[in-house]
């Protein structure tokens, strides 16, 4: 069996913000009635916390959950445990109209951090990146230039999830927007 690798072998760029490909991450898409008690229990068991509310997420120590739509979550688990997580969800949700799928190998994850991280993303997405409109703990689907992405705001930067097939394009977009000298000062002092 071959070792799991990221799409871009851990690519990194340092400019007005740091762009780095995250290590391999287990990810599971869960479609279900998110208000069902069984779903809440299963998510807590697999992801380590409650079902997040609309546009919410949590992620700590390789486990977490992100709200994707009224009936969909993206669950984060340590790499190599996604298949186990899918099996656990299927067993816990038996009898409910629900589906779980391991999407780990179909996604790439990037971290955007540093004082100008918010500005770098604001150059590329139509989502309002203002601190009061996109505070830590928020997660939303949007696009970056021409491709779909999901962005999560954390206390120390942003996590961006995209399809693995466009990882090179996304990295190049982010690196271009973070080029030294490219700050426009829209969010002063990295606010």
UniProtKB/TrEMBL annotation:
UniProt organism field: Rhodovulum marinum
One Pfam family recorded for the sequence: SoxG
Coiled coil segments of this chain: none
The name this protein goes by in its record: Sarcosine oxidase subunit gamma
InterPro entries assigned: SoxG, TrmE/GcvT-like
Taxonomy of the source species: Bacteria, Pseudomonadati, Pseudomonadota, Alphaproteobacteria, Rhodobacterales
